[in-house]
Specification:
Length: 238
């Protein structure tokens, strides 16, 4: 009996913390969205569950989360299959090796880290549905970051136009972890300008209407500069 009670009490405590954290994140997102003069439905929160197992992810979904993101293919597949009965949208947000594309791509709703033409070609080869992709842009020029440089994009886009299983819904970037607020404003502003330029071109299967940027520590600034998908992890599990 005591063991049963302890497990129940632990589960109840976890659920309360997740609910409290979820409400805190959503409240902060709503406030930042309102301050930016944007409609509330224009910003989506992707809960990054790499920190927890499938059981905790399921409890988080119960709080009202409807977008789940994973960095690694193995963890993505583990949660996707464990939570197959959950009505959520699945985001693969981390680096994808070409040899793993066939294992995962047809379970993905949004892929946030398209960072090479060869990877795009492999996705096109393996996909049996239209895959919504974000071009990853290394807008900050950080050597450790993946992604295309902004000046490469015209050539990249031309190469991608022949691939009919990919839809370029937007751009994604990761700001340096140690960036100041001033640097964040500059990085996210540059991304918004780049997005606006690409949208204006009206390229078939490349609407570029979305911006995937902003994480637990900088999402308010990202929202101010037009982020539509936030990748938030640690704030849910503190």
């Amino acid at each position: 009996m005591r063991t049963s009670w302890t497990r129940h009490h632990f589960s109840e405590t976890v659920n309360m913390n997740l609910q409290k954290n979820k409400e805190g994140v959503y409240s902060a997102v709503a406030k930042a969205t309102e301050q930016a003069g944007r409609p509330s439905e224009s910003v989506h929160v992707v809960a990054v569950t790499k920190y927890v197992d499938s059981s905790i992810a399921k409890e988080l979904i119960k709080t009202g989360i409807d977008h789940i993101g994973e960095n690694r293919v193995d963890k993505f597949l583990e949660k996707y299959h464990a939570l197959a009965d959950q009505d959520v949208t699945w985001h693969l947000i981390g680096t994808l090796q070409r040899r793993k594309v066939k294992d995962v791509i047809n379970f993905v709703d949004y892929f946030h880290a398209l960072d090479s033409i060869k990877l795009a070609q492999e996705i096109d080869k393996r996909a049996d549905k239209l895959i919504k992709c974000f071009l990853q842009v290394n807008i900050s020029g950080e050597a450790s970051k993946h992604g295309f440089r902004a000046e490469e994009l015209p050539e990249v886009i031309q190469a991608l136009q022949t691939l009919d299983k990919l839809e370029m819904v937007g751009l994604m970037t990761m700001a340096p972890f140690e960036a100041t607020d001033e640097e964040l404003h500059s990085i996210f502003s540059d991304m918004k300008e780049l997005q606006a330029d690409l949208m204006a071109r009206q390229i078939p299967r490349m609407p570029f209407t979305e911006l995937s940027m902003g994480m637990s520590g900088d999402f308010e600034i990202a929202i101010a500069h037009g982020a539509t998908y936030l990748r938030i992890g640690s704030a849910f599990f503190e």
